[in-house]
Amino acid sequence: AQSVSQHNHHVILSEAASLELGCNYSYGGTVNLFWYVQYPGQHLQLLLKYFSGDPLVKGIKGFEAEFIKSKFSFNLRKPSVQWSDTAEYFCAVNGLTGGGNKLTFGTGTQLKVEL
Amino acid sequence: DVKVTQSSRYLVKRTGEKVFLECVQDMDHENMFWYRQDPGLGLRLIYFSYDVKMKEKGDIPEGYSVSREKKERFSLILESASTNQTSMYLCASSLPQAAEKLFFGSGTQLSVL
Asked: I need a surface site. Which of A11, A32, A40, A78 has the fewest CB within 10 A?
């Protein structure tokens, strides 16, 4: 079975601070990894994804994430956050052996960016 | 743009009632999913479907059933609603290729009293 852990449940940062949100997954085989974001009052939307190749992936709005296979991690980063980044962030994993198209989500990290 | 429409934004039901949550997508996606979202628990998969009349249990199917009679419509059914089913329910759809991208509806906040 696949599972995802997000260790930070609530993060508060000032504008321009750097961000790193942790994500660790548990799965024995090949995986696809995702970060989704939910802005206040809006739908969940895809921020970025890793399928294969370069382990450093770039997404929308200046976000990036690095897949470290040896650590089973896929941490989300942004060098300088903005107030508009206030949202809830979800890491998700899709195990490609038997997992099919089933995404398993982490518990989410609520990010608040203060002016 | 893909549109996933959930019929109700807010719903209040009583314990023991049969509840139907409807979801329609307009992009001919094969895959459809029902998740529930609870604070501190994230999104948990209830049921999903890869094709018409096909369904598979997710991680927390107990107390729920689904119906997919047409490709564009995926219904979640609570046979006898209970207070612990008070939650935000999210429908999503995607193309079949390796969970390329999920498109989510705006959610139905269900309160069971």
From this structure: A40
- CA B7 vs CA B74, B85, B112: distances in Å: 11, 18, 17
From chain B, which residues contact A within 8 Å (Cβ)? 31, 33, 35, 40-45, 48, 50, 58-59, 90, 92, 94, 96, 98-99, 101-102, 104-107
**Are A92 and A36 in contact, with CB atoms under 8 Å apart?**
yes
Which residues of chain B make contact with A97, given a CB cutoff of 8 A? none
Strands B64-70 and B73-78: antiparallel
Q: Which of A90, A88, A87, A76 is nearest to A18 (CA)?
A: A76
How far away is chain B from the Cα of A33, in angstroms, using its nearest Cα?
10
End-to-end Cα separation, chain B, in angstroms: 36
Residue in B closest to A8 by C-alpha: B40
CA atoms of A29 and A14, how far apart (whole Å): 38
* Beta-carbon separation of B105 and A36 below 8 A: no
pLDDT digits (tens, 9 = 90+) for B55-112: 999 889 999 999 999 999 999 999 999 999 999 999 999 887 655 588 999 999 999 9
Query: A89 forms bridges with which residues in the sheet?
Result: A37, A109
pLDDT tens sequence across B23-39: 999 989 999 999 999 98
